[in-house]
Structures are given as structure tokens and as C-alpha cells.
Amino acid sequence: QFKGVVTDSYAYSFATVGRYTYEHSRHKVRVQLAGRVAEAIVFGATRVGTFTARSDLRNATAWTKELVGMYGFSAEQENFDAIHNNLAVIDDEASASEAAHIEQQTRLFLKRQYEAVEAMILENKRFLDAITCALLEKQVLNQADISAISRDIQREDSQSPLSDRTSSFTPINQLLTKIVEHMTGEYTLEA
């Protein structure tokens, strides 16, 4: 069943053309994990849907296995002293020990990225809550709706310095696009 279309914004796409870096790849994985994270935050860990994030998790896993096995990255990539720990790449079939290593690194990488996404979403919880409320009123949100929510929160923040808000609110449109898709099952992205 068709659930919707999610794409990168034009600004993001143009900014990253030709920049297939670790950072770009990490971003792609984080976007794939965002729906599962948002569901766990909104509904609780035991009420996460069984089917909603399956394809996203498959994509994140496959991409991470390529990062580790084919491109020489590791779960320690962001630790400068350890970036050299996984420079052997697999050209053909992986041996049993290579496959086990890739699997272990993939699981660790995905765990760390999940934790990073969770921290980002919790830091921007007011944004997630506002999107959740908007979805109760309107089942389909478009980019303009999400941008309006972001502007409203930023306006509130500028008018209310003593609130319990996070002073470092940062719109995370790529992650929130996935959150909206997973929360409604019917997200469509309109320009």
C-alpha cells in the first residue's frame, strides 16, 4: 500500500550535489531512523509499530553495511584517533569473519545514530509535539505546514525567554519529514 513520498528539500539536494561524504551518508542513515525514534518518543518504546519503519530500517542497515564493508568506515569514524580502524574493504564475497565484523560494526553504528537522532528530537521536542497536535487536526502535512510550525515555535521562543524551551532550537526538516510520515502513514511532501 502506498504511504506517501518523502524527498530531500531542493536546498539540501543542491547543497550536497557531488558531496558523498561520511557526513552525508550518516545524515541519510539518521533520516531513515527518525520515524522509529519519533514513534518511540510519542507512543512509548513498547507501542512502536511493527511494520511502519521496516523499509527504513532495511535501507539504513544496507547503507551502513556498505559504509563499513565497501567504503572502509566504522562505528568509530567520528573519533579521529580511530578512523583508521576499518580500512580493509570487501571487493568480493565477505568471509565469515569479515561478515561478522561488518555485522557488529553495522549494529554499533546504527545504535549510535539512533541515539544521536533521539537526542536531536528530544532537544526539539516542542517541535515534535506541535507536529503531533497538527496531525490530530489535519492528517496530511506539507512542507509549508512544517515551516509554519517551525516559525511559530521560533516566534514563541523570541517572545518568551523564561519558558522551558531549548535555547538552541534548530529546525531538523529532514528528520521531521520522516517523523510525519511515520506518525500518519500518509505523509505527502508538497512544495
Task: Describe the overall structure.
The protein is mainly alpha-helical. It contains 7 helices and no strands. Helix 2 crosses helix 7 and helix 4 crosses helix 5. The longest helix has 28 residues. The chain starts with 9 loop residues before the first helix and ends in a 7-residue tail after the last helix.
- Element-level helix/strand string: HHHHHHH
- Largest sheet: number of strands, sense, barrel closure: none
Mean pLDDT figure: 80
Q: Give me the secondary-structure category.
A: mainly alpha
Shape by Cα distribution: elongated
Point out poorly predicted stretches: 165-172, 184-191
Number of strands: 0
Tell me the fraction of residues in β-strands, as a range.
Answer: under 5%
Distance, first to last CA: 23 Å
Instruction: Give me the number of helical elements.
Output: 7
Instruction: Give helix % range.
Output: 55-70%
Over the alpha carbons, how many angstroms does the gyration radius reach? 18 Å
